[in-house]
Write a structure and sequence with these properties.
714 residues; alpha+beta; Helix Hairpins; 3 domains; 6-stranded antiparallel sheet; cell membrane
Length: 714
């Protein structure tokens, strides 16, 4: 089941206030917690730094004390003499070993004390006789000692005791000789354990339950740690925070080790380059800040709860109760109850009650005015509170408009009554005239029917004449076509005669040439004498045939020439006949066109007369309809006159301003009426789209006269 907040006025006021208070407390708690956390972190870091720096200084002092101690030992006469490569030096080495053994027994921080010559070979030792010792000639720290400086080796695990140890190499100078490199004649080697440093200066560092100290060498190797498994096996260079731990100066930093967030402070130990660090879990480190944050949260919660409860009751009594009264008043007004009243006071809620009471009073007055208007009393004097009083302006304009409308309706009713009587008289006259007009239209319609019949007969005859003219035109076209064909045939005969004449001419030319040849043959035969007589006879016969051919050709040419002239004359006659036929055809065509136009005009006349008949029929129907309408209009005008009388009787019960019937709607002194300015008054539109903001006066000349003389205008 979901929890739903009821958004009443109390919740709308209190919940935002509570939200702001909660937000303020949360922000205050967060800021305070931030500052407190930073301060506690700074204090804790400072405590870390003080503790770690103090122990680092103690370790440094311890190393300095050992350095001074070893330096004083290297100045011992017996040890100095033992470093000499002479009889006295060799004789003193046994005594030097006993001295070193005594020092080893008296100082528990040392695991071994050895005297070396310049080659790094042991010449005396505090250890038991026969113990093997390695040569240190190649050691960098040994060479550093040969150069006149104390050298400190890296920390390593002793093969003898298993402890973590380191070596200190101190140069040995001759007695009363300057401490210069050239005067170094041996080196005193001291092996020290880290037990004292671990027990006194590292393991004693604690912070809460999870804080502990550890020591790291200059090479990053872990020298001292609560977990012995990490000593010399863990190099911090391999860890993500190794760079912070091996920084060149002391610092504090946060890191993660084995999944645990930690805080650490580191300090560098001079001379050795070791790093002493103190670390603790961040959760324990920040425990104080978390406690303060939680405490502030609890305090803030109780403060918010107390303030919210107090605001709930205070606002409920001072604000919500008057608002409920206002809501009750609004509900009564919604139901139309204007009898409600609110308590007043000097505060804003009291002023609101006073203003609402004034509103209710104004509504009562306007309700009383509305009752008067409903009863027909339009003499109400409406009070407009201000220019922004929309309801007052609307009532004022309504009263003014109703006065104007009722007054105009009275005048209009009288005019409607007069107009109805005029319409009734005019409708009766219109009905009588329409009846006479219908009788005349029937006579005209009968005459037009006879004319239509005759026109139809003329149109049919014209159509038949048009058909006959069309057939004559087609026959003329056919005769002209045949004449043209005959002229073409005669032209062909003429051309054939001309060709035959050319052939006869050719035959004549051949006969002439043949005659010439026969003549030449006769001449040649005469020359031949007796031998040419037979050829002369043949030539004579050929000549006779040529003469006969020439004569026949001439006769044929004459006959053909005569035929050609006759053909030419026949061609001229045929052309004239064709021209005559063409003229006849054109005349027939024009006659056909005229007859067609006559037929078309007759058809159009017949159609026009038919349309006239239809129009006359429609006019007859309209006239009869007008007659019926006029009778109906007369009856309606009489009914309208009766209704107008009833309307005037209804309007007579209204009292309007200006007619002397108005009485004072209220007695006593009234507030000053604020009437809307003319420019701001709403313009009232009547049903015909005309401005009806004021009274309208109808002039007599604006009335529509519906008598017999003026009826035709409308």
């Amino acid at each position: 089941m979901k929890f739903k907040i009821r958004w009443n006025l109390r919740n709308k006021i209190i919940l935002p206030i509570a939200a702001l208070i909660i937000l303020g407390m949360v922000l205050s708690t967060l800021v305070t917690n931030s500052y407190v956390s930073e301060a506690l972190i700074a204090v804790s870091e400072n405590r870390f730094a003080i503790q770690i720096n103090s122990n680092a200084d103690r370790i440094s002092d311890w190393l300095d004390a050992r350095a001074v101690e070893i330096g004083s030992w290297s100045g011992n006469k017996t040890l100095i003499t033992s470093t000499q490569d002479s009889f006295m030096g060799k004789a003193a080495r046994k005594t030097a070993s006993e001295l070193l053994a005594a020092l080893l027994d008296g100082y528990k921080d040392y695991e071994a004390i050895i005297l070396l010559d310049k080659t790094g070979t042991m010449i005396a030792s505090g250890a038991a006789a026969g113990e093997k010792t390695e040569s240190f000639g190649g050691s960098a720290d040994f060479k550093k000692a040969l150069n006149g400086e104390q050298g400190v080796s890296r920390v390593y695990r002793s093969g003898k005791s298993g402890k973590t140890v380191f070596n200190v190499f101190s140069p040995v100078y001759p007695e009363n000789a300057a401490h210069e490199v050239k005067n170094v004649q041996g080196v005193l080697l001291c092996t020290l354990t880290l037990d004292t440093i671990a027990q006194k200066f590292v393991n004693t560092i604690k912070y809460g339950k999870t804080g502990y100290g550890f020591l790291v060498g200059s090479d990053g190797a872990t020298l001292v740690h609560p977990d012995p498994n990490l000593i010399l096996s863990l190099n911090v260079h391999d860890l993500p925070f190794g760079e912070d731990l091996m920084a060149s100066q002391s610092k504090s930093f946060y890191y993660n080790f084995k999944g645990v967030d930690k805080f650490a402070a580191m300090s560098i130990i001079p001379r050795s380059g070791w790093r002493l660090a103190l670390t603790s879990n961040v959760e324990e480190f920040m425990a104080s800040a978390y406690k303060i944050r939680n405490l502030l949260g609890i305090i803030g919660f109780f403060v918010v709860a107390f303030v919210s409860v107090g605001a709930w009751f205070l606002i409920g009594g001072m604000v919500i109760k008057p608002v409920h009264q206002v809501v009750g008043l609004a509900k009564k007004l919604q139901m139309g109850d204007l009898s409600a009243q609110l308590e007043t006071g000097n505060d804003e809620l009291g002023q609101m009650g006073e203003a609402l009471n004034a509103v209710v009073l104004g509504m009562r007055e306007r309700a009383q005015a509305a009752k008067g208007i409903a009863a027909g009393d339009l003499c109400q004097d409406i009070v407009v509170a201000s220019e922004k009083d929309v309801l007052g302006k609307a009532l004022f304009d309504m009263v003014e408009s109703l006065n104007s409308v009722v007054g105009e309706l009275t005048i209009s009713g009288q005019q409607v009554d007069e107009g109805a009587r005029q319409i009734s008289d005019s409708s009766q006259s219109l009905a009588q005239g329409a009846t006479e007009q219908a009788s005349s239209l029937e006579e005209i319609s009968a005459s037009m029917s006879e004319i239509s019949t005759q026109t139809k007969t003329n149109a049919d005859n014209a159509v038949q004449a048009n058909q006959l003219a069309e057939e004559a035109r087609k026959a003329g076209d056919k005769g002209a076509s045949r004449m043209g064909e005959m002229m073409d045939a005669m032209s062909a005969i003429n051309e054939s005669s001309q060709q035959i004449a050319k052939i006869i001419k050719t035959i004549d030319d051949i006969a002439f040439q043949t005659n010439l040849l026969a003549l030449n043959a006769a001449v040649e035969a005469a020359r031949a004498g007796v031998h040419g007589k037979g050829f002369a006879v043949v030539a004579q016969e050929v000549r006779s045939l040529a003469a006969r051919s020439a004569k026949a050709a001439q006769e044929t040419a004459d006959l053909i020439e005569g035929s050609s002239h006759k053909v030419s004359d026949g061609n001229d006659i045929a052309e004239k006949t064709a021209e005559a036929l063409t003229g006849i055809n054109d005349t027939i065509t024009k006659v056909a066109d005229l007859v067609g136009e006559i037929a078309a005009a007759s058809n159009e006349q017949a159609q026009g007369i038919s349309q006239i008949n239809i129009g006359l029929s429609q006019i007859d129907d309209a006239t009869q309809q007008n007659t019926a309408n006029a009778e109906e209009t007369s009856a309606a005008a009489q009914a309208l006159s009766a209704q107008s009388t009833q309307v005037q009787a209804q309007l007579a019960r209204f009292k309007i301003k200006g007619d002397g019937a108005c009485k004072a709607a209220y007695s006593g002194e009234r507030a000053k009426t604020v009437r809307p300015a003319a420019g701001n008054r709403p313009r009232i539109q009547d049903g015909w789209g005309q401005d009806d903001s004021g009274s309208r006066t109808v002039e007599p000349n604006q009335l529509i006269a519906l008598d017999d003389g003026e009826f035709g205008k409308y």
